[in-house]
Each structure stands twice: as structure tokens, then as C-alpha cells.
Recover the amino acids of this structure.
């Protein structure tokens, strides 16, 4: 409020526009950021963008044991899940770094940023 007690709406609108611009910029940065997760000593690698979307998954052939396909399938599934969780944690950290200051300016956390 101004010293006279009146709210300066133009100033409020300018601040809102700045916040919107900063939010859009941070969202774009998140979409362009890549983070990685790994498990099994590097046998499984997952790449996700800063929003948590999986963009790549690689499984080293060494993870597959031809003599025991059932056990191998279960092991590989566990390794994939572990790598996805690892990448998800990394993506959440990036989200908090980029969006945290903006959400504080909005008076709290932003919804939808903690899906991991």
C-alpha cells in the first residue's frame, strides 16, 4: 500500500507480470534440463527432463543372464525402477532449485512439483 493507504494496482499488475515471466522462464529451463539416474552400478541408466518426464532408458547387456530369463527379468525390472526413482529425486531437486524462490513469492509451494 502507498503511504496514504491506497493500493497501487498498476504496481501490483507489474509485479504479477514479472512473476508470470519468471515462472514461464523457470518452466522452460526445467523442460530443457536433463538429469540422470542410475542403478546396479551403472547397468541401468535413466535420463529425465527437469519436469520428471523420462526421455531415455538404457540397460547394459551385462544385466541380462541368458541362463535364467525369469530371474533376469525380475532383476532388470527392479534396476529400472531404482534408476527411475534416482532420476526422479534428481529432477525434484532441480525443480526445488528453480521453482523454490518463485513459490516462496507466491506464499507457498507450487502444486504438482512433487510427484516422486
Amino acid at each position: 500500500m502507498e503511504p496514504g493507504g491506497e493500493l497501487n494496482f498498476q504496481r501490483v499488475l507489474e509485479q504479477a507480470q514479472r512473476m508470470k515471466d519468471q515462472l514461464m522462464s523457470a518452466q522452460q529451463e526445467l523442460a530443457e534440463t536433463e538429469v540422470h539416474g542410475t542403478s546396479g552400478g551403472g547397468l541401468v541408466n535413466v535420463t529425465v527432463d527437469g519436469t520428471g518426464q523420462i526421455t531415455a532408458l538404457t540397460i547394459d547387456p551385462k544385466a541380462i543372464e541368458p541362463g535364467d530369463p525369469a530371474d533376469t527379468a525380475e532383476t532388470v525390472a527392479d534396476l529400472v525402477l531404482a534408476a527411475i526413482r534416482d532420476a526422479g529425486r534428481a529432477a525434484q531437486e532441480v525443480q526445488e532449485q528453480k521453482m523454490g524462490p518463485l513459490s516462496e513469492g507466491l506464499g507457498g509451494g507450487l502444486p504438482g512439483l512433487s510427484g516422486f
Notes: Residues 108-116 have pLDDT under 50 and may be disordered. The first strand starts at residue 34 and ends at 39.
